[in-house]
Amino acid sequence: MTSTDIRVVVAIDFGTTYSGFACANKINPDEIETNTRWSGREGLPKTNTALLYDANCDQVLRWGELALFQEQRRRKNQDAEQFHIIERFKLHLDNKMKQKPQLPIMFDYKKAITDYLIKMKGVIEETLERRWPGLSLKQVLFVLSVPAEWLPDTRAVLRECVFRAGFIDEDTHSNLEFITEPEAAAIHCLSVCNEHNLEENDTFLVVDCGGGTVDLTVRTLLAGNKLREVTVRTGGLCGSTFVDEEFLKFLGRKVGIKALGAFKEQAYEDLQKLIHRFFYEFEPIELDLETNCSALIPYISGELKDKLEEEDWVIDIEYDDVKNMFDPAIQTIIRLIDAQLNSVPPNKVKAMFLVGGFSESPYLTRRIKESFEDRVQTIAFPRNPIAAIVKGAVSYGLNMQVIESRIIPWTFGIE
To answer: Which keywords has UniProt assigned to this entry (predicted)?
Structure first.
């Protein structure tokens, strides 16, 4: 299979908390389509990276958003131990992470990745058949975005899972390409460089703030809309997922861990709405359990119940509480940005672009501007930041010459 046989590029953003894909035909490279149809629902650019298994973890009963909602229905009517919900399994690919998400005993995280990719492959095939009837997967180039800090061995594990999921085979192994998430984000940001008066030889920093990881890269804009890497790509485990975890820990201290667990099982959608409000408003909240989380109340017991009854079932979340939940992740992001800026001459970086779902946080936006507006002329947040990675990955697949040069972050010795 040669590059001339490729008709369509499909990019997959396999994320820690959410995943999605986009595609484009080589004949119309400017028309990149982001999928927004998941299990009959429309309008969502991504779906949850989640799987609902049977008791033995052999069969996937539901996947994506439906895995979480279906779990609620099953737990209401049957023994909860008969089913397993698996989330955040991508983090098991990170060898640097010490405390990884818990999985069922004897369950291989690679099975979860493969099973999830199989389900996503089904949606991709339906999309391709609807858009380009008769198209064969052999005519499709798949581009997967990966965190900047992943080593070649980690990519090899993901390639194995992609192979087992049926995206490629022995004859079409060359139909799979990887691109780092910051590279994909940088390519996407090429489309907005003109809006911010960036010219040839100007340098910009891209910060991709995702759910699990935050990845950074510094690039110089070259002639012909090509990019040269200026510094080694960096990243860290400081995405929005870790803010959500801090919020849930806080809530667990107020109502009890068991009560919070029951609330998640019985009213997952209500819990997500609560997290969403907390994430986007970033302000003190008077959380009225009777109004917002009535399903939680029956599970609260003991001294915590007595205290909440005295306070009319209202939990006060003060500004300092909210700040303490966000700051560990945001301070890490600020340190990563500072390190990138310090690795180049002063004032060399003309613009900073923030993309990814976490970049929509008002508090993160404010902290970044306060910390770096004296050092970077333009700090911008491109439209639709959640789709930046997958769109940039499609653009890369359509024109791999867009990356003029890379800095290799690994060295190899020969004995």
So the answer is: ATP-binding, Nucleotide-binding
